[in-house]
Amino acid sequence: MKILHTSIECYPIAKVGGLADVVGSLPKYQNSIEVEASVILPFYDNAYTKQQQFKDLYTGSILMNDVEYPYTIRELISVNIGFPLYLVYIEGLLDRANVYGYEDDVKQYIAFQLVVLDWNIHTTEVPDVIHCHDYHTGLIPFLLQHATPYESIATIPTVLTIHNAQYQGWMSYDYLKYLPSFNHDVIGLLDWDHQINPLAAAIKCADRVTTVSPSYMKELQRNANGLESLLSHEQAKCVGILNGIDKETWNPNTDPMMVKNYTVRTVTSGRKENKKWLCNHFNLDVEKPLFGFIGRLVGEKGAELLPEIIESAIEKLAINILILGSGNTDTEQRLEGLKERYKGSYNAHIGYDEKLSHILYSGVDFLLMPSRVEPCGLNQMYALRYGLIPIVRRIGGLKDTIIDIGDDGFGICHDQVSVYDVVHSIERGLTLYTNQKEFKRIQQYIMSLDYSWEKSAQQYLNEYESLTQTHTNG
Ligand code: ADP
């Protein structure tokens, strides 16, 4: 069973958030069962790719708005990341340093999708299923089925995984001229609220729609940034499959990014060394419990509450707080602004830093995740693997993975996105921290939990199999 994953993020080539971690690890686990999974991604001219070697596999060209764009498919050959990785290079368009942030991104995403399809009509290695991730690749199911140039591959089944339904890729009908000719009787499939909506188009056209946790699947019927009725209507082909984590990359015993490695047995001494490093580096008191936040500073993560949480918690409790994140400028400035006032108890690194995130996972005592929306959330699973106790809002994947200590579980949960709820949870964390024996018992217990990909990779395989059988029979 050959699966081609299409995405614009993939760890370690291009990572902004969880999408990269999933696309960079699921195929590796799929390749250990009866699946031959590969990934196709735009080419990025960044620090990682500069150090790698590629083999040019295929050259061709696509037409957008009557302009011809030559492209090259490059295969990564200098390192084995667990699956074949193909990068689409188009000079001036798919050769940028960053994943996001370009004015012509709609053109970039359309070009990428056209190349994926064009390459598939020319290659002999046609996949059994094309698996699209998020709206950036959401036009593929529609184009595959209805655009004239791709008739020869129109029956390949497609799967859409929604990692985040907030972003849908809305575009005006002016962009129609960038698409190849298609049967205009079905133009409505592209539409949602009088705009082209690639995520909506993919939900309508993909043979299967998955989300990254079962709870998020249910929540989307009530809260999907305008697509609630569509998702309810398409319910029969939707399924929630919980993400897993890459146990090799995220292994506290071998992680090269940490200050000190440790195992379940040496968790206390190992985590202490990492915490010491963090406290020295960020001028914090190593004797106090350390609460951390890692993530995008956006409303979905409840990040705009962080300044008030810091003020309220540090004013009344003997704790430290450390933030690693970037995003909303106002939140970034407010977090920067609090540094001087709470010197010695609070600090923040505003920016993206993969290595530092690993040190936080291995040295912070509690991880704050006051999310408004959390499709799956990987941070809490990395936290468990590293013996870091998560404090989460009961939503989406957080609800599916974390059980409160009050219910014989191993995390701290709250229901509302409010400063009061989070500070109350921090107080509960502080109480747990004062009972070091119980604190250690939970740390050791959570490190033994298994949130790896094995089970979910099998669930994806079941979905692929049901689709290929339907297509063969039908
Ligand atoms: P999302 O994809 O919504 O941002 P996830 O929890 O699925 O959230 O994944 C977030 C991933 O990005 C995790 O691997 C987390 O460690 C990482 N991450 C987020 N912000 C930063 C940052 N500022 N520096 C380093 N890693 C970060």
Provide an overview of this structure.
This protein has helices at 18-23, 26-30, 47-50, 105-122, 140-146, 198-205, 214-220, 228-233, 267-282, 306-316, 329-341, 354-363, 379-385, 396-401, 419-434, 436-447, 454-473; strands at residues 2-6, 36-42, 54-64, 67-76, 85-89, 129-133, 158-162, 191-192, 195-196, 208-211, 238-240, 290-297, 320-327, 346-350, 366-369, 389-393, 412-414. With 474 residues, the protein is an alpha/beta fold. The chain has two domains: 2-244 and 454-473, Glycogen Phosphorylase B (Rossmann fold), CATH 3.40.50; 267-447, Glycogen Phosphorylase B (Rossmann fold). Strands 3-4-5-2-1-6-7-10-11 form a nine-stranded mixed β-sheet. Strands 14-13-12-15-16-17 form a six-stranded parallel β-sheet, with helices on both faces. It has a two-stranded antiparallel ribbon with strand order 8-9. The longest helix has 20 residues, at 454-473. It is globular, with a radius of gyration of 23 Å. The structure holds adenosine-5'-diphosphate. The site of adenosine-5'-diphosphate (ADP) has 18 residues, from helix 1, strand 12, strand 13 and helix 12.
Helix/strand layout:
Elements: E1 2-6, H1 18-23, H2 26-30, E2 36-42, H3 47-50, E3 54-64, E4 67-76, E5 85-89, H4 105-122, E6 129-133, H5 140-146, E7 158-162, E8 191-192, E9 195-196, H6 198-205, E10 208-211, H7 214-220, H8 228-233, E11 238-240, H9 267-282, E12 290-297, H10 306-316, E13 320-327, H11 329-341, E14 346-350, H12 354-363, E15 366-369, H13 379-385, E16 389-393, H14 396-401, E17 412-414, H15 419-434, H16 436-447, H17 454-473
Parallel strand pairs: 1-2, 1-6, 2-5, 6-7, 7-10, 10-11, 12-13, 12-15, 13-14, 15-16, 16-17
Antiparallel strand pairs: 3-4, 4-5, 8-9
